[in-house]
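Hi W.,

Here's what went into the run:
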Amino acid sequence: MAAKAFAVVAGVGPGTGASIARKFAKAYPVVLLSRNPANYEPIAEEINSSGGAAFGISTDTSDSKSVQSAFEKIAQQFPDAPLAAAVFNSGGGLVRKPFLELTEEEFVRGYESQGKGGFNFAKATLPLLLRGTGLEHPPTLIFTGATASLKGSAYFSSFASGKFALRALSQSLAREFGPQGVHVSHVIMDGVIDIPRTKEYRFEHPDAKLNPDAIADTYWFLHTQPRTNFGYELDLRPYVEKW
Amino acid sequence: MAAKAFAVVAGVGPGTGASIARKFAKAYPVVLLSRNPANYEPIAEEINSSGGAAFGISTDTSDSKSVQSAFEKIAQQFPDAPLAAAVFNSGGGLVRKPFLELTEEEFVRGYESQGKGGFNFAKATLPLLLRGTGLEHPPTLIFTGATASLKGSAYFSSFASGKFALRALSQSLAREFGPQGVHVSHVIMDGVIDIPRTKEYRFEHPDAKLNPDAIADTYWFLHTQPRTNFGYELDLRPYVEKW
Amino acid sequence: MAAKAFAVVAGVGPGTGASIARKFAKAYPVVLLSRNPANYEPIAEEINSSGGAAFGISTDTSDSKSVQSAFEKIAQQFPDAPLAAAVFNSGGGLVRKPFLELTEEEFVRGYESQGKGGFNFAKATLPLLLRGTGLEHPPTLIFTGATASLKGSAYFSSFASGKFALRALSQSLAREFGPQGVHVSHVIMDGVIDIPRTKEYRFEHPDAKLNPDAIADTYWFLHTQPRTNFGYELDLRPYVEKW
Amino acid sequence: MAAKAFAVVAGVGPGTGASIARKFAKAYPVVLLSRNPANYEPIAEEINSSGGAAFGISTDTSDSKSVQSAFEKIAQQFPDAPLAAAVFNSGGGLVRKPFLELTEEEFVRGYESQGKGGFNFAKATLPLLLRGTGLEHPPTLIFTGATASLKGSAYFSSFASGKFALRALSQSLAREFGPQGVHVSHVIMDGVIDIPRTKEYRFEHPDAKLNPDAIADTYWFLHTQPRTNFGYELDLRPYVEKW
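Here's what came out:
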């Protein structure tokens, strides 16, 4: 019997990652990666207690050894299983500072979190995704982008260089692995996401923040696209966002 | 009782437009616009005989009078009704020629079809879309783009200038009408679409053409996004497409 | 004896066009095109009285017949002469209005001025530029872009669709005529230009407007690039401009 | 008496860096940075023996300590002197490999060389450039980009993520330091440069490689632009390049 397909979400906190995990858990067992177990435990519990299957692994995606160790555990749990979907949603790496006050460590943090984190995640998931080209939906690797993926604003050199690097990676992977049947996408969040951390951000208009469940719906939709119609890049923003 | 919402698709032939019409007809009565009645008649019939409601109006979207006359007929059919979705999918305007052999008429054709056509369609549909902001899904105006929306290739100055103009229009409308609750999107087809006209195009790989039904699924998905998460631009291509 | 090379500048008023004409007049006789003779007469006089050679022709670049008639006069003046440089700097076409108040005529004006104007100018100048591939500097065709060449802002659908169309045209021509030795460039003005018409615009900082003479220096520099190093697109902005 | 302004070029080999150094040496004493002294010694000698002033410092721009030590030497040589121009032209970091064969070290190399290298160089030069806002030409910081600055091609994830990161950095710096009078530019080389290392690349057409002296002319031209007209991004390619 063929091993059952599963999904992996990196960057699971109480916001977007949780919504994505919940959504994909309706179809697949889901592995939740986050540095801090407190981030994924409530969601894993919630999924498990509502008929789904999920477990978390404490992982620092910017650290290749941590990622390797996580995927060894995953291999034990899902031996030879194809990966149906992998979502890189790691936050972190956001520093906002006048350039001359930025330390090397702070500058590099954007890349560590996004560029290198994305690399480690892609390196670990692509061999498993390639096993899944016969599944109902083409195996899918989705990267979460931001306004800073397209624009290097003043004071944002660290985060923007990380997000630009992640976008370069995603393009390169889409061009290499698309023809092998893996759907690689890059979704740009151009706005504040409505998560616990942004509760205090108030806007003049209602509905001015991106809804994380609706982000998850978009990721799921991309996942269901057939290989004839791979969507690569989509920008999402609240209706009142200035851009 | 409130008037029932409907949808309009411009550029209905036996390919993408037909698939979009079929898809939206599952939820709304659909008006089909095309210059040639032979283009929409079979689809209208098919929709009507399978439980939906559709009718066509012979319309040249590049001609403001023709568009005005079409929307007068629509107003009679759907008095005061909100427009749930409007899709501008007009083809035409594609000329491929060395620049010095291009006549003024041929150059302008790309703009007439795409830029001016898009303007006329937006001008007629936006007042009706604005009536629909209380509907289940935010009222949606989708423009079909192409590779030539982003790249002016040699010999394609006519079509590319039309598609660039259409993209400018769509951006401007997204920025003006998004805050009013209308979802404006621009979807880029980066590949050959699998329609009767492209039957003879053969590729080394299977599934090398964009599937029109899957394009329609994407348009429908964009339509269902809430106003917190308006997707603006998405590029679609077959998995083996070089880009 | 070989005919002497000359230059043509379209869109000569008291601002950028005049500066470009003055600059190129140091090397070539210059033909000045503008609808209104009052626009080019003072500059022609100034150039002629300071050792250069210039004359103007009343031309509407959006009207192919007007352009044709202008280039017949040019052919009489410079029979068989190669064209060293052609600059398309036509302004006009700028309408700023809520979309639903925009008439078809107003919307199309952006394209007429920019897209079609650029086409007519390119059609007339390219055969003459192709004669100039043996000159000291590769023959050069430069188009003046604007912020609206890259961004369709709310209320700017007319101008942006014209400027997007012009950019598409310039890309297509660069790809077709570059290999034939003609240097095609597109220069984006991202800021207010310091010309008589913008005198009243006041900014907090000094030097907050683009200097037209410095724009002319940039155009001249692009003209002097060898064919090994054709610069295609450059964005210019005042140091304090937000972008 | 005010200290004399000088220039710094990072990434000086026998190609583009040498040409840039020679060009700027006509106006300023020039400091040449390269890991390998064999790279800058011949150029320093050549400049010194032909009336200019130049000296090299063995520097690894990806290593902050190495950069710091280099700029301590520079401070001794040019105490309190303003920096007129700083050019980041470091090559390196180019790996071309199927993604699954790429080691973490190889992936990160692109960023180390470009992103972090650019950061270290900017961090060291910006305080000196800010001293130069009263000089004849606005102090200028130029970054050398590549095709991979805009496109993540298959097999190029390492280099492209480094070049994307560098572009993000350059945008962020342009937006922060432009208003302070420092001209930040990013120049994209879209083609093979004609340097010793590319001697063996043969093309069908003559002049098919970018000429390094003409690149230097472009950098110098950007340096001479007044603060009213800062050029930010320019793409250079040989006339026969496909793009």
